Amino acid sequence: MRIIDVYIQEVTRRLPEKMRTDIALELRSTIEDMLPEQYSEDDAKQVINQLGNPAVLASGYKDEPMHLIGPRYFDVYVSLLKMIVPIAVIITLITVITKYIVSYNGEEAILMSVLSIFGESIWSIFNAAIQVFFWATLTFAIIERVDKDKEQQPLTASMQKWTADDLKNVPYIPKKRAISMFEVFGSLLWTAIWATLYFYANQLIGVYEGDGDRLQFVMIALNQEVLLQYLPLVILIIGLEISFALYKLLKQQWTKGMAIWNAVIQLLSTVVFVVIVINPDIMNDHFVTYMMELFTMTWTQFSIWVVGSVIIIFIVSAVISVYDGFKRANAR
What's the CA gap between 226 and 280, in Å, rounded? Predict the structure, then answer.
């Protein structure tokens, strides 16, 4: 009957050439055994429906999965991607920014440099994520096909069958202590922003005037040479903040030790910031004169209201960060 021949053809065409003849004979015999002696086309359809989709049946003969990553490895595969992709993205972002900072010679406009960093960062992050996704998927697809174990129960991260004892190795993270990816990326972004302002203060911080179509940078506010006198301390703080952000990414929750380290970093950052700001040579003289005339104030008033306000804001934000760190570390 034609419907049986077509069904056998649909099954065997999905098999290797050397298997087709034997499987076709075996399948035809199976179908005939399931049919009554005088069968109709409806009887054949009923038997074929019992045998099911030709693709599924062919997959059973080949003893190979129809999926790329099956349930046995899917949870491990997704967990690995969640762990590796953010690390690859952060390393890529740091690499791109560092490359631009080291190679910058001052000839290119700062705005074009920022746009270049932004564009290359997006492309590099996308490329890194695709590379991680491709190689992880390829690796697990090969493992899926090499593994001849018929067990389909999902494996744990240690590639073993799950038992209640595995719960001993899983930390309980209260919601208030949990560290999100947004928090980690926010920390790195903040570090990148203030570091950029520090290294390019003579091109970014100052007085801008509009000429109708765009803003034009007309006066620097800070003396770059004086700022760079504190370079070793600033590099130290940048390194500490990046290391602390990566540590938060690995720990995924606030601890008392982490809160203490956060307090140390905030204290050190505050001290360095205050030392820089109170340096009498840090401000450009033309900028100070411009501000005093603009707001009709004396140098003493300028120091109290502008410099004092900046220091107070920085100290308050550091105290809030320290308080929040200990509060979240002690959360239950």
Answer: 10
